[in-house]
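I hope you will forgive my troubling you with a question about protein structure. I should value your view on which stretches of the chain appear to form regular backbone elements. Here, with my thanks, is the record as I have it:
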Amino acid sequence: MTSVPFRSWIPKNVSGWLWFWRQQALSCAFPWSLLGFLVLTRHLPAWIPRYDAMLVICVILQFVLYKAKWETDREVKVIASFHIIGLMLELEKTHLGCWSYPERCWLRIGNVPLFSGFLYASVSSYCCQAWRRLDLRLYRWPAHWKPIVLAAAIYANFFTEHLIGDMRWPLIAVLVVVFWKTRISYRLPSQRRRLPMVAGLLGLGFAIWIAENIGTRCGAWRYPYQEHGWQFVDFSKLTSWFLLVMITFLIVAELKRIPTKAVELSGIAEDKVPSGGMASSPGVAMS
């Protein structure tokens, strides 16, 4: 396997860093707006159901982002599909008592407020935005059937772990093996950089774990061990978020119709981006 020096993961100068984090911030427009309103709605008058207000806010946010052309038609469809995927998972987990939504709510299915699907949709929103803004390209992507089977197996495990045992660690091991050589290339103003896909998505999972601590701290939902006072979310949840991020990324990647042929890495760390253009590289560009 071709080694990937750590210095090739990150921007080479301050301007590159600033540009990179600006694009990250723009990609997080919907997730951070959602999190901010979760904090603010904690102070709503008692007669306004907080979760219903969040649903209205999320719908308005999506409408505004779409009309402002922040999100494309295709991205909105992807986000909507993840809203449904998330709601199905919420129904199962709240039924089993894995976590709960303690406040009253009118717009819900069972014990699940409808706004909760947007918590998962926000992850797909970030992936779509980052893909476009950073011009992500993938290298050494496995054959189509592998990501599809793995995404299905990970999602199924969230439903079957209480019946046949939790298979997350075997699944993580398989993911690491299958995607060990896969690289994500991203664009900077004057160059491209690349990093191992597994490491990048693990970092994203950690960021979501931090956001979840903020969400539970403001009482939006809670775990059984938080019933008598807030505590940090169990660090083991990081594996759950890593798997959820992996599902999201695999589905979004497959929707980009990535060719099955593996592509060799070749000097991508130093690829130059011509003024007003893109680097010429042996990778597969996703639009």
